[in-house]
Amino acid sequence: MRFSVLKRLPSAWRRPLAITGGLVTVFWLVVVLAAPLLAPHDPLAQDLPRLASPGAGHWFGTDELGRDVLSRVLYGARISIPLALLLVVLSLLVGGTLGACAGFFGRWVDETVMRVADLVFAFPTVILAMVVAAALGASLQNAVLAVLVVSWPSYSRVTRGLVMGIRSREFVLSGRLLGFSPWRSLRIDVLPNVLGPLLVLATLDIGTATLLLSGLSFLGLGAKPPAPEWGSMVAAGTQQFDKWWIGVFPGLAILTVVLAFNFLGDTLRDALDPTAARTIGAEKERVA
Predict the structure, then answer these.
(1) 243-266 pLDDT, tens per residue?
(2) Within 10 A of 200 (CB to CB), how many other CB atoms are there?
C-alpha cells in the first residue's frame, strides 16, 4: 500500500535518481520558505563561541565571527535558490524569444541574433561572467546580470533549431494559409511545440546557475558580507582551512542542489522523450 502512490507515477519518475532529486528539491524549497522557523540562531548574530566545532549545541559549528553555520546555510538557501530560479527564467525568456524570432523569420534577424550568440560563446563562460560582474560592480544583482549575459545564448541556439524544424510543418503552413500573422503563428503553432525541450534545459540549468552565482560570490564578485550566501561562506572557509566545517557544509548545500536539479532535468527529459520512456519500460519488463 505504501508504494501505491509511486506506482501511479510515470515510469521515468519512479527511478531512484528521480525520487532522490525530487525529495532533495522539495527539502530545499521547504528550507527556502521556512528558514526563519528552522534556523536555531540569527544568521548575522555574533554572540556565539568562535570557531566552535560541530556538536550538540551547534550542529554545523560556528565561524570565525561566532555565527552559527547551520543557520547561515539555511538562510543561504533563501538567496542562492531563488536567484538561480530567477536567472533561469530570465535566460529562458530572453534567449527563447530571440531564438524563436531568429528561427522563424530567418534572414537578417537570424544572422544578427546568431552572430551575437557566437560572440558570447567565443569566451569561456566563467571568465566572461567574471569580467561582466567586475565591470558592473560586486553585488548579487550584478552577478545575476553577469550570468544572464553568458546564459541566454544556449537557449537561443536550442530554440532556433527547434523552430526551424517546425516552421515548415503542415499545421504551421495551414495556419498561415488561413490568414494567421507571423507573430500569431509563432505564438500559437510553433512555441507550444518547443516548450518541452526548453523546460528540460531550464531544469538542468538551475543547478548550473546556482554553481555560477556561488562561484562569483566565492571570488568576491557577488554577495557582500555579512550576507549568508553559500559561495561567500565557502570562500570564508578557505581562510580557516583547518576549521573544515566553515566551508564544507555550504559546499555540500551547493552540491545537493546541483545534483537534485540535474536528476530532475534528466528525468524530465526521459519523461518527455517517448523513445526514452519506451526504453525505460522495456528495461523494467525485462528485469521483472
Answers:
(1) 899 999 999 999 999 999 999 988
(2) 21
